[in-house]
Amino acid sequence: MYPARAIQSFVDFINIMTYDYYGAWDTTHTGASAAVFNPANTERSTSHGISRWLQVVPAQKLVMGLPLYAHTWMLQNPNTNGIGSPAVGIDVVAKFLKKPGTIAVYDERTQSHYCFAGKNWISYTGVRSIRAALRYAKELQLRGYFLCSIGQDEGNNILTTTAFEVWRG
């Protein structure tokens, strides 16, 4: 819906927000907030957004965004806890991954992370999802990437460090 051809002729690069596909505005179902791929809803994925831009803008002008934060939900039923599970609202992130009983999952289909404990469900960016997103960007020969909310990367900057190491090769 943007005049991409006109835009790209006036800029050196375009930052693409390839995240926030799901979040607090989706209170009825969980979702991978930064899925590289999404077989359940292809329009809510990095691959879809990037491929649409590549139809009109050269890859060397595209910069892919990576979030360094999480989106949270309260599950309707703790036993139904995958991507797309029914939810009854959102929850708050507070050192959740370190809590006893938290189960962390890397979903191969969407190449994204989520974790849950009881009724709490969180979609977050992790080392494997950053590696997957950057591999995808490098395969497409995009100009690069940017990090969103770098200040929310936990203490020792694991995700930020991983992003720079992966991009450098």
UniProtKB/TrEMBL annotation:
Gene Ontology terms describing biological process: carbohydrate metabolic process; chitin catabolic process
Transmembrane domains' residue ranges: none
Cellular component aspect of the GO annotation: extracellular region
GO MF annotation terms: chitin binding; chitinase activity
Domain GH18: 1-169
SUPFAM superfamilies: (Trans)glycosidases, Chitinase insertion domain
Protein name: GH18 domain-containing protein
Species of provenance: Papaver atlanticum
